[in-house]
Structure formats: structure tokens, C-alpha cells
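Components:
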Amino acid sequence: MSCELTTTVLHGYLDGELDAARAADFERHLISCAQCVAALEAHEALRSSLQGARLYERAPAVLREKLHAAVGASGRISAAAVSQPASWRWLAMAATFLLAVFLGWRLLPMVRGNRGETALASAIVDAHLRSLQPGHLEDVQSSDQHTVKPWFDGKLDFAPPVRDFVNQGFPLQGGRLDVVHGRSVAVLVYARRKHLINVFVWPTTEPDSEPLSGSQLGYHWIDWRKGGMEMCAVSDVTPEDLTELQHLLMQ
Amino acid sequence: MKRRAVSSMSSGIEGKGWDVLDLQDRMRFEQLVLPHLDAAFNLSRWLMRGRADAEDVAQESMLRAFRFFRGFHGGDARAWLLQIVRNTCYTWLEKNRPVDLTTEFDEEVHAQPSATPETLAIAGDNRERLTRALEELPARFREVLVLRELEGCSYKEIAAITSAPIGTVMSALARARQRLQRVLTQDEAHKRQEAGREL
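Structure:
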């Protein structure tokens, strides 16, 4: 006949979860129950096997870095949190892009209303995760529009307008591909003094629209459609600077 | 393949309440939740039975936690996070590997030799065998063992993470330990048989 305590109180005892009175009761029970004594011994052996076998698996370093970068999207935190050495430029890029993504979660659905809101959110999450991998922020790094523009050829089913505005104070930094709302989009990266601006570009069948802008967490975005293209610029530059770039891109 | 796993999950979680945290909340998240990433990963790894899927799920869980962070009003951040991890794992498994969750162990059918500390000590030397044995357990037993023995959670914490009463936690642990001993002992007996046959 089996002692029912082997499947109940014995485990509370083993795990140190019994109060003093119940623990003492069980210890008295152990004196007269060989079955519980054997079970306790077996379970203790099992415990030390489990704890001694290095079964605990820690998160990969790359995942930790991704998450730190994602959470510290303000840039200041991420610079401190990312443990691997990385150039400030990469971090600045990451920070700007992450910002764009976090704003994207919030602003694109707002800008576009309810249509496809959820699909877009998940697409941007994916884009965000991918971009955090080192080397994924910029696919083509060049300030030469004649290098960046042809780079997009054959990679997209549309030709994003790529222009350098270095003379106007917005030097082109490069470009990359991303996926937003289930489709490939072009991303152009511009600099403004020490700040970076991400411009997401994708074709649209919607009519042209006036620019719609907003800000959050001290960062600004501006979204507009023109000539079958939709663009969304995001950065921590001033709204005036962003509007200036928007005017240049609209021309 | 990883990508697919993430997006298939993402499609189920976005939508209402999607919100961006302000700087202060981000810093709190970084201080309170991110330090438990290893715990999140370890639980995912054992529920998913593999590192690749665990990475996706741990990442997904962190994103969910980030999204729900405003609903966290202090207390045990690890338990709060692990509850999200667990739910994310089960959601993923229900969708992608439902068989993982339906294989319930029929204790009456499986006759078992009783384990002795000696056989366990032999079996326990082998990390691979312990891993295999743990992975053979039904998810609901595996999780209490991982939380208790690897993560060092109290019954109260396990109860919070698994949304079960403390009494249920204790009996799940009891059954999980018995089952694991049985698997290891059978494994050992089987090995001896094999060795005997070869001689």
C-alpha cells in the first residue's frame, strides 16, 4: 500500500514550502514510513542531478543586444546598453531607425486609418527585428545618388526618387530595403547636422495628400503622398528641418 | 523559417492597445524586465524543446511584455514576464505543434519499476539523457520542474506564472518528478538490457 504523502506533502517538504509545524509533522512521519524516506532520497538525488547538469540555457548575446537596442530607442540608453563595441554612427542609425519603427507602430495606422492597421504593425515589427542585426541598417552606403538609385533597380517593383540634398544641408547617407505592410519599401537615409532622418518610400494608388505630421517622445514625423508615391520621414531633427526636407522631396 | 515563426505569431497579437512607452517607462522596463531575459529564454527553450524556436518566442514575449508594460504595477517582474512567456509558448504550440500539448501521460497504463537513488545517480551524470527525459514530459509537468529546479521559483511564483492554485503546483511537481524518475529508470534499464544483449 502506497503512502499518499509521497505525492503531496513530501514535495512541499523537499521544496522547503511547508511551515515549521507541518515540516515537523512530516519529519515525525518519516520515522515510521520507509516509503517516504526512499522517495525523499530519490527525489533529492533527482534534484541534484537536474541542478548539476547545466540544463539552464541562457539567452544568446545577439538577442540580448537586439532587445536592449529596441527598448533603448531614444539612443542615449541604447548606447549605454549595447555591450559590444560599435561605432557611434551605427548606434545613431540604429536609434533613428528604431525610433522610426516605434513611431511607425503608432503613427502609420493613425495616418492610414484602420485599413490594414494590424498587418502593418506586424510587418513593421518584422522590419524592426531584421534591421537590428548588424549590417542590416544600410544596404547601400553612399552619398552619391547615382550609386544609391541604381542599387534599388531590380530590387523593387518601383523606382524610388533618390536625390542628394547636400547643398541644402541634407546629405544622402545611403539606402536600404525593408518590408512594410507586406510589401518591399525603399528607405532613404539622410543626415542633418549630427542627426539622421529615415524616409520610407512606397508606391500608392491613393490620391496625393497634404503632408500630415506629428511628434512623439520629442521626435517628429511627416507623411505625404505625391504622384503615386507615399513617403514618411522620421527623425529627431526639428519639425522645421523635417518640413524643409519634405519640401525638397516633394519638388 | 525563424522569420515565419515570428510573423505567424505577430499576426495574432497586434491590434488594440498597441502603444509606445515614453522614456521613463522604457527605462523602467530596461531595469525591471530585461534583466530576466535569461529566465524568459530558459523557460521558452524547455517549453519549445529547442533553441531556435525559443529565440523567436522569447523575443516575441519581450515585445508583448513591452506592449503590456503599462499594465504592470510593480511586484514580481520575473513572474510577470514568465507568465507572458508561458502564454506565448502555449499560443505558439497550439497553433504550430498542437500534438505537444495533447500528449497526456496515462499513468495507469505505464507500469514502472521504482527508481533508486543509485540508478538516478548514473542517469543523472548524463546531461543529454536528462535533457531527453525532460523533453519527454508533458509540457505542464516540464514547466513546473524547470521553474522549480532550474529557475528556483517558489510555489507562489509558479502558481502566479501558471495561473494555478498552489496545491495544484505541488501535485504537478510530484507527478512531474515521479514521471521523470520513471523515464530515467526505464532508460537505464533499457541500456542495461542492450548491454546484456551485446555480451
